[in-house]
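Notebook p. 47: complex prediction with D-serine.
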Amino acid sequence: MNMSYLETTDPEISAIIDKETARQVNGLELIASENVVSRAVLEASGSIMTNKYAEGYPGKRYYGGCEFHDMAENLARDRVCSLFGAEHANVQPHSGSQANMAVYFTVLKPGDKILSMNLSQGGHLSHGSPVNFSGIIYESHQYGVDLNTEQMDYGIIAEMARKVRPKIIVCGASAYPREIDFKAFAEIAEEVGAYCVADIAHIAGLCATGIHPSPVGITTFTTSTTHKTLRGPRGGFILCDKEFAAPIDKSVFPGMQGGPLMHIIAAKAVCFREASTDGFKKYSEQVVKNSRTLAETLSSNNVRLVSGGTDNHLCLLDLTNFGITGLEAEQALGNAGITVNKNTIPNETKSPFVTSGLRVGTPAVTSRGMKESEMKQIGEWISAIMQDSKNTGLQDKIREEVKSLASQYPLYPDLT
Ligand code: DSN
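Predicted complex, structure tokens below:
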């Protein structure tokens, strides 16, 4: 990539970026929450929009010189509203956690009850984990999956909601391979008089393209990141009805953030336009086809899949049968140029630093143009390493094969 100024003025950081570029170019990224942004997103996020303070909102800023920032933010808001069919959007949250925080700040008081999915069974830190602000400030109650089916059981969740009477119910997950029934969650929330927030960070691209049912217009709030299946810059956003527009905006700024990252908001606008194209819909369909193929290949090699398969962009592997931990598997695959993350699984017996599982996802490799036949190959490589995880010779051999496959699918045409 052309970074000639950086190379001259700061060779140390330039060399680090070069190494990371080589890692991305030569390896296979299977972390389910990562992706490869377009050149256009990359350019906007590296643009001079970063130079500006723009605290406030379009037309109501606390700084002069914001006229073009107003245009960019309006475009981002309009585009994301149109993409998801929402009445109001706030595109300023720096992350998905901050989007969630803004929703909580809007409708909860410290000590109020929230009901959400347990982190160890697929939820997220910002959904009430005891080590996160959401579990410290609020009284957190958590549901999990049915331990037999390893899928959400809406009857059990409804029972919990009736017992707990939470002020807010959070649905959405970071390691759940199955479709989420947002309508069922909204009905449960309505029955117990709770607000319902859908955190679609992982599946936003699938919801935008109709491949996964969208919660917009069904749940009270929708929060998300922009950088996972939606394939935008790192960041977050909130969607809601007009009724909540003013309090949500106030919660984000001045409630919890200062100046918005205007270069990122410009890049979010680019992402939202890209996500509205037919090409993105085809991409999203391929993400799920690839995920299913990867799951089938792993399954046919005796890798147990949590819940038995996948409906979305990720699958969760239970490594118990192989006698290795998630940590060991992550390291062994990393040695072979395949980047994944260890993950807890339902009925987990190990710590989150060790785990019994692995999470693998297809958004990034699909962005590089890989299809079912490449997924079969990747599934065979993963299975071979799981079966012989201490064989460093095998890892070295596969690393060369991975590099060769990766070279056929460049991240960017000039980065082969
Ligand atoms: N860290 C993200 C993930 O990997 O799913 C969630 O925030």
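Notes: The longest strand covers residues 113-117. Residues 278-415 form a domain with the Aspartate Aminotransferase, domain 1 fold (CATH 3.90.1150.10).
Next step: compare against the earlier run before touching the bench.
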